[in-house]
Design a protein that fits this description.
homotetramer; mainly alpha; Tetracycline Repressor, domain 2; DNA-binding
Chain lengths: 222, 222, 222, 222
DNA sequence: TATGAATGAGGCTTCATTCAT
DNA sequence: AATGAATGAAGCCTCATTCAT
């Protein structure tokens, strides 16, 4: 009752405190996401519990539900953030392609994903799980939309190169698909327990695979 | 005396009946495996329960445990059967390579795995899960041993080709690893919900990727 | 219809076979009891399953139920047999007491029970369990009746000794009860994991305790 | 400001409420232990289920696991509490022995255990079970350590008495062992259904047995 | 009679989410 | 807003007993 109203345009005394509160709330949200990600990487998707996340942030379990409506929402947020970062890298690559460095997108994409394979795979799994259980279908749709716009940009690059006769004439999405697949496979290989003993020079292996990706469909000598 | 003679080499009375019983038991085991596989494909590894499997076969929960000691054992069995089939295909390919068709192993491997990508990915996940939870470590070791022997055979092929100067000179396991990764990626791509709307000619896409795999490191024109 | 009737008085041909069958059946019963006892001693009361017993005898699980109506009945039979043997030893001791060796019953009782403490305790536990779960109340009643008759005989011995002024004048059943308790305690001590490290000379310990039992209430010098 | 002052040294607002909450939580823990003990006594160790305990306290099954990590932990806790009380009584007895009342420890020990024979036997069984199944080995070790220190103190008393020629010269642990055994036997006797009909004066019977225990090895007239 | 496959109740434990304080 | 105790559905597995062959 006797509390001052707090709106952003309001600069009466007391506002500052309210703003700090909001700030703290936002930071807490970030902490929750950080903690969740860390735990997911440590333990895998299966076994992370809400209780563990809360404990790591050192807040109550209930507080988590003031920020997110469900555990899935936390995971969705992480997924979005990761995809966002990846999309930005790709955009940079596409920009370079426009200036003539046609291999830049492939390299950017590959390097981004392979830079932290543990994380990359984590999100692959997470997305899969969320889709399978059909949780958050609208959010997933949004995510796919974002990707589609990236793909469209990439396809433009490929189409141009095809038109120039520099790439084999196949539907341009073949290139994006193949890039994706090779990158995906590289990430999985990086993780595979089966290959653990076999692959002694993992960095060399990754370079070798990236090289394959970068030269897909190339009609120039390589 | 008045019993009908059994229709096999063994005509001790009661034998025939016993054999039928054994047969029925084996078939039930197969039914359980089939049901489990079907459910796994439908729902993913996460959510299949022993109760569901039992319900699908229309038997009691307990009956499952007459055939398998645990849910994990069911999964392991499915895994082994799948790997077995894959290994056989690869051996055929390797045999062809010995007769000069050096691309046969790659093609056999790729085609086998891509033939049923849903299943392939399922088992990938299953294996990963079993390893992570460290269930059935001995069985996993056995599985890996089987694979290692295949890898050795493949590496022989690669080494020979490298010696002949037909392949780029890198550690031979790079080739196996890269094959694996590309195949893995193709399977994931096939399955990916994100690409569902984008890829209109999936078969063409797969051929395109396989072609990449088959020509890895090739020094001949392509 | 065309089978010869088989009664014991009947000595027509075919009888011999029937008798053998009966004999085999009886032996099987004994085998089941032996196997059950052995498993009980090996594993304790908790974990022995009907399946294990059947496997040990090398017969089908169902066959067990042709001989006994339930697992409890098997246990009851074992219990009876053990008690029977104990009762016989005690009767011998009482007979000796009648000839003047007044310590014979106590000694016989103690020595019988301590001779195989593992078995003794097993049956103690078994009886307790059966009583608690109120399985087979009539059989338990029968068992107790048997014991009561023994106790009556013993009490006669004690009463006489009291009358002679050789034993402290207390209700005669005090002696039987105290014997029982000391013996019981000795058996438990023998088993106790807590004393495992402490008691280095278990035989001496047992003798020491038996001696206490044998001299209970004795008014003669000791 | 308008909050009532908390009635303790700490008057930060909300503290009082928090304290009440903690108090309530502790009380619930006690309720669970009480309920478990009651059920154990009623039904024996075999058949008490977590569900029953929860029902008795009128809480959900899951709540139990907020207080204890497993059913075994509940049992261990009960065991510890019982042993603690017993150890304290014994220490008092040993203190009296130091002042010349050499029979005090035996009496204290016996009377403590016989005071609630049902409970005493329950814990005997419980401990046995936990040891057999090798659950909670560290906690068991702790328990045994506690006992060992008691035994050492008792043995001192016995050694002194032996040196004084007041007790028969045997290893001092014979006395502790024999005490234990007699007490154990008395407890079992008290509980035995077989003796139910026979023993009309159970208190007298117990005194009689305790007297035996108290005079073990005594060289003085009695 | 002998068999052993089949049953299903019942036990323990986990964990996302709710809600009273 | 923050908390964390409470919840209870759901999962895996065991085993005495039944019953069709």
């Amino acid at each position: 009752m006797n509390q001052p109203k707090s709106n952003t345009w309001d600069n009466r005394p007391g506002m500052e405190k309210a703003r700090q509160k909001v700030e703290k709330f936002k930071q807490r949200e970030a902490s929750i996401l950080d903690a969740a990600l860390e735990l997911l990487i440590e333990q895998g998707e299966e076994s992370v519990t809400v209780e563990q996340i809360a404990a790591k942030v050192d807040i109550g379990k209930g507080t988590i539900y003031k920020h997110f409506t469900s555990k899935t929402e936390i995971y969705m947020r992480l997924l979005f953030d990761y995809e966002q970062a990846l999309a930005n890298k790709l955009k940079d690559g596409i920009a370079l392609a426009a200036k003539g460095d046609f291999k830049a997108p492939a390299r950017a994409y590959f390097e981004s994903r392979i830079a932290d394979p543990v994380k990359d795979r984590l999100f692959q799994r997470l997305e899969e799980k969320i889709i399978t259980l059909n949780q958050a279908p609208e959010l997933m749709a949004e995510l796919h939309q974002q990707r589609n716009s990236i793909e469209a940009s990439l396809n433009d690059v490929f189409e141009q190169r095809i038109a120039e006769g520099k790439l084999k004439n196949v539907p341009p999405y073949f290139y994006y698909g193949a890039y994706w697949a090779i990158t995906q496979g590289a990430v999985e290989l990086y993780h595979s327990k089966s290959f653990e003993g076999l692959v002694h020079d993992m960095d060399g292996m990754m370079d070798f695979i990236m090289d394959i990706g970068v030269h897909i469909g190339n009609r120039e000598s390589h």
